[in-house]
Amino acid sequence: MTADIAIAPAEIQLVLNQFDRTRLEVSSPLHGLDVATLEANQTRYRFLHLAGPDDFETPGIEAWGAEIDETPLYTDLRDSLLYAGVARYENIGAFYERRRMLQTLSKGVRFVLDTNTFYHGFPEWSGLDGDEFMIPDVVRDEITSGLNWKYRPGDIATLKRSTLRANAALLDELANQRTKRARRATHFALAQLQRITDDATQLQSDEGSTSDKEENDARIVRTARAFEQEKNRLPVMLTADQNLATLCRARGVEAFLFVLPGENLPGSTGFGEVCRWLCALAAVWGVVKVNSVLLFSEWRGRTDQRYPVKVRFLNDGMANDCIRDLQLCRELGALGIER
Description:
Blueprint: E1 3-7, H1 12-16, E2 23-28, E3 33-40, E4 44-50, H2 59-63, H3 74-84, H4 92-102, E5 109-113, H5 115-119, H6 122-125, E6 133-136, H7 137-144, H8 153-160, H9 180-196, E7 201-203, H10 213-231, E8 234-239, H11 242-250, E9 254-257, E10 269-270, H12 271-285, E11 287-290, E12 293-296, E13 309-313, H13 316-334
Parallel strand pairs: 5-6, 5-8, 6-7, 8-9
Antiparallel strand pairs: 1-13, 2-3, 2-11, 3-4, 4-10, 11-12, 12-13
Helix pairs in contact: 3-12, 9-12
């Protein structure tokens, strides 16, 4: 017997509060992967274990969903940690110092965002104002091109062949839902794009985008260079892609290359960031398990867009307590009382 309820990301903490112990065991039931172990104190979580690249190189993991580009990757985990603010670019301090120096220039500065920065959640957690950013139309096209991919009728059956029999039924929730590519584009990149699009400068090219990444990079750089010459403003490309940063420098465009986080355990992490990370990880892989609950980012019959996470309780007693607390919190929230 199981119980399901749809919730908002901020309500995940209510679910975590139901556990008798302070330790969280996070795993991917579809892939048979132990992802992380965290321990809580009164104010924060501490990572005791986090899967590394070697954990994704076992034959079972590497083969899972390979025919339809659904294989779980270490970069999925790393990007979810970045997106949630649990991890940071290793040279983020150097970026803020570079920004401070650029702001002393007489001509205005605009930070041109590469596609990967949207998937890393940078526009939101960076603390920069939206009007400091510039969005190339090529980047916008790259993001939107990934939105509308859904599983075909035979795809779920293909994935079930690689999944432990006890967990294969979980894939039924994903039937006719968004694929991994579309989930990442929707939950990560599109959310960030929508957040800043009204304030950011739109960088329009005359060439549009292509399906060739290297050509797209070249078009972004050419357009940024033309913008500087025409508007007398300094575009600075922000990217975690070494090849794009090198191309920028070769073409006389300012660039800052972010250094992706290493394999070390994240430091002490706030409750909010952990809840956001669990949402992000569920968005990438469709479902994750936290102790005795499952978190889904896609499911059959979803109707209310306010609640993008479905919780499935594997413990009925816990479900009853959590639903009671959740209803009480929602009723209190509806009163609009401010502290």
